[in-house]
Amino acid sequence: MRLSELSERSGVPVATIKYYLREGLLPPGEAVSATRSEYGQEHLRRLRLVRALVEVGQLPIASIRRVLAAADDEHEPLHLVLGTALYALSPRVEPAADDPEWERAESDVNALLGGLGWRVDRTAPARGRLAQAVMTLRRLGHPVSMDDLRSYAESAARRATTEIGSLPADAGRLAMVEAVVVRSVLYDQVALAFRHLAQENESAHRPWPHLPPGS
Amino acid sequence: MRLSELSERSGVPVATIKYYLREGLLPPGEAVSATRSEYGQEHLRRLRLVRALVEVGQLPIASIRRVLAAADDEHEPLHLVLGTALYALSPRVEPAADDPEWERAESDVNALLGGLGWRVDRTAPARGRLAQAVMTLRRLGHPVSMDDLRSYAESAARRATTEIGSLPADAGRLAMVEAVVVRSVLYDQVALAFRHLAQENESAHRPWPHLPPGS
């Protein structure tokens, strides 16, 4: 297909596709004349993934290259390819060195994940994100128990079984990575929106005591 | 107590407290001499809330004033005070005018919440956030069914019962608002971190097929 058809079928503007070509995120088409190239299904599949990484993942070009390289490496098992994409999407929290509050939170997180028997890499950015939230809650006087954390873990595990189970495992590597990126980012938003809606609904049904201002 | 003791007991640096005083977020102490003011328990409670709004909520000063005004208005029921805080923390999504995909997503969200019987204000920012995520998933070729959404709603409802139920309902209005702000923001982070950890663990246990690169 020509560039114009690639644009039409993917829904990505021609100028954007040209930008991806210049950045090497999309391989060049096959030159059929001095001014015309032919693009194939492979371009369409890759374009879908690149768009997901740019628009939904909002990743910088260097991270996009890393995810594409993992997807292109046939020796890389699918689990690690998906992990590369998920880690690229996650904010990374730098641990505070020699801070006993941080160390306690981190060791609680590691003990919890160990106790659950979860297979999660030591470098997973979500470990630090969780430890930081736990540390900050405690620092501000809001106790966090292992039982609290375990109940969040259990809810998350139920959702993950459904979410990972519904990935298109037979649609090819690029489609799998695209689905992981799009769904991870957007279902995070779905989950957060429902948290807030459910909190409002729960608060609306509570018989709150009358508390005078300034109390 | 003196300013230095207020700082020590709250853990907030003196310079930061002075900034809050200048901005009127904290009322002045009682002047006991030309250079010394006395601060009380009321200052300590309010300081805890202001710090939560600034540091954890990362709210602009105008939003902080709005939340404090709601907390100070004795005619404002607690549910609405908490709502003011939760809405101030939520990103607001502007609907796309005359976009049939947006309208479909929004009407699905409204139908779902109506069907669940949830008491959620028409202006709740989480409605728009949810509609936008649903619209984007569909636009990128990832179908979203009402059943999918309902199962997220049910998980969220269970968590909200525990979270709202554990708020310190007898600790006073300022402490309640402080707890809502701190916990809403930080337990969002806890929930997201566990989502990602659970996804990694689930993926690690799947017998993924071998998919050749470029597929």
Automatic annotation (TrEMBL), chains A, B:
Gene3D superfamilies in the record: 1.10.1660.10
InterPro entries: DNA-bd_dom_put_sf, MerR-type_HTH_dom, MerR_fam
Gene Ontology terms for molecular function: DNA binding; DNA-binding transcription factor activity
A Pfam family per the record: MerR_1
Domain HTH merR-type: 1-70
Keywords: DNA-binding
PANTHER family attached to this UniProt entry: HTH-TYPE TRANSCRIPTIONAL REGULATOR ADHR (PTHR30204:SF98), REDOX-CYCLING DRUG-SENSING TRANSCRIPTIONAL ACTIVATOR SOXR (PTHR30204)
Name this protein carries in UniProt: MerR family transcriptional regulator
Lineage of origin: Bacteria, Bacillati, Actinomycetota, Actinomycetes, Streptosporangiales
